Description:
This protein is an all-alpha fold. 97% of the residues lie in helices and 0% in strands.
Amino acid sequence: MASASSTSARSLFIExxxxxxxxxxxxVNNIASLTRQIQRGSKSSEILIHAxxxxxxxxxxxxxxxxxxKKLSLIVNHLEYQMDSIDKSSAILEEVTxxxxxxxx
Length: 105
Protein backbone atom coordinates (compact mmCIF):
# COMPACT_ATOMS: atom_id res chain seq x y z
CA MET A 1 0.00 0.00 0.00
CA ALA A 2 2.91 2.24 0.63
CA SER A 3 3.88 1.97 -2.99
CA ALA A 4 0.39 2.89 -4.18
CA SER A 5 0.33 6.01 -2.05
CA SER A 6 3.85 6.98 -3.12
CA THR A 7 2.87 6.51 -6.76
CA SER A 8 -0.20 8.60 -6.15
CA ALA A 9 1.89 11.27 -4.44
CA ARG A 10 4.36 11.26 -7.32
CA SER A 11 1.63 11.65 -9.90
CA LEU A 12 0.06 14.44 -7.83
CA PHE A 13 3.48 16.15 -7.56
CA ILE A 14 4.09 15.78 -11.32
CA GLU A 15 0.60 17.06 -12.11
CA UNK A 16 0.97 20.09 -9.84
CA UNK A 17 4.41 20.76 -11.30
CA UNK A 18 2.96 20.70 -14.82
CA UNK A 19 0.09 23.00 -13.77
CA UNK A 20 2.58 25.40 -12.24
CA UNK A 21 4.69 25.37 -15.41
CA UNK A 22 1.55 26.05 -17.49
CA UNK A 23 0.57 28.94 -15.24
CA UNK A 24 4.06 30.41 -15.42
CA UNK A 25 3.98 30.15 -19.22
CA UNK A 26 0.56 31.86 -19.35
CA UNK A 27 1.81 34.65 -17.07
CA VAL A 28 4.94 35.18 -19.18
CA ASN A 29 2.82 35.37 -22.34
CA ASN A 30 0.45 37.83 -20.65
CA ILE A 31 3.35 40.02 -19.54
CA ALA A 32 4.81 40.01 -23.07
CA SER A 33 1.42 40.96 -24.50
CA LEU A 34 1.02 43.73 -21.96
CA THR A 35 4.50 45.05 -22.76
CA ARG A 36 3.71 45.16 -26.49
CA GLN A 37 0.46 47.01 -25.82
CA ILE A 38 2.18 49.53 -23.58
CA GLN A 39 4.87 50.12 -26.18
CA ARG A 40 2.28 50.63 -28.92
CA GLY A 41 0.22 52.88 -26.70
CA SER A 42 3.12 55.05 -25.63
CA LYS A 43 4.50 55.34 -29.16
CA SER A 44 7.94 55.68 -27.62
CA SER A 45 9.65 54.29 -30.70
CA GLU A 46 7.89 56.85 -32.91
CA ILE A 47 8.93 59.62 -30.56
CA LEU A 48 12.54 58.42 -30.61
CA ILE A 49 12.54 58.24 -34.42
CA HIS A 50 11.08 61.74 -34.64
CA ALA A 51 13.67 63.07 -32.19
CA UNK A 52 16.49 61.44 -34.16
CA UNK A 53 15.24 63.00 -37.39
CA UNK A 54 15.01 66.43 -35.78
CA UNK A 55 18.52 66.04 -34.40
CA UNK A 56 19.86 65.11 -37.84
CA UNK A 57 18.10 68.11 -39.39
CA UNK A 58 19.55 70.41 -36.75
CA UNK A 59 23.01 69.05 -37.42
CA UNK A 60 22.61 69.71 -41.16
CA UNK A 61 21.33 73.22 -40.42
CA UNK A 62 24.31 73.95 -38.19
CA UNK A 63 26.71 72.75 -40.87
CA UNK A 64 25.04 75.04 -43.41
CA UNK A 65 25.21 77.97 -40.99
CA UNK A 66 28.90 77.31 -40.38
CA UNK A 67 29.52 77.25 -44.13
CA UNK A 68 27.60 80.51 -44.57
CA UNK A 69 29.56 82.15 -41.76
CA LYS A 70 32.84 81.18 -43.43
CA LYS A 71 31.60 82.68 -46.70
CA LEU A 72 30.56 85.86 -44.91
CA SER A 73 33.99 86.07 -43.29
CA LEU A 74 35.61 85.89 -46.73
CA ILE A 75 33.28 88.60 -48.01
CA VAL A 76 34.20 90.83 -45.04
CA ASN A 77 37.90 90.33 -45.79
CA HIS A 78 37.38 91.27 -49.44
CA LEU A 79 35.37 94.34 -48.45
CA GLU A 80 38.17 95.40 -46.09
CA TYR A 81 40.70 95.10 -48.92
CA GLN A 82 38.44 97.14 -51.18
CA MET A 83 38.00 99.77 -48.45
CA ASP A 84 41.77 100.03 -48.02
CA SER A 85 42.14 100.42 -51.77
CA ILE A 86 39.47 103.15 -51.85
CA ASP A 87 41.23 104.98 -48.97
CA LYS A 88 44.56 104.85 -50.82
CA SER A 89 42.94 106.01 -54.03
CA SER A 90 41.19 108.92 -52.31
CA ALA A 91 44.49 109.98 -50.71
CA ILE A 92 46.18 109.89 -54.10
CA LEU A 93 43.24 111.77 -55.64
CA GLU A 94 43.65 114.55 -53.05
CA GLU A 95 47.35 114.79 -53.91
CA VAL A 96 46.58 114.95 -57.62
CA THR A 97 43.91 117.59 -56.98
CA UNK A 98 46.44 119.69 -55.04
CA UNK A 99 48.96 119.32 -57.85
CA UNK A 100 46.37 120.39 -60.43
CA UNK A 101 45.47 123.46 -58.34
CA UNK A 102 49.09 124.40 -57.92
CA UNK A 103 49.61 124.08 -61.67
CA UNK A 104 46.62 126.31 -62.36
CA UNK A 105 48.00 129.17 -60.24
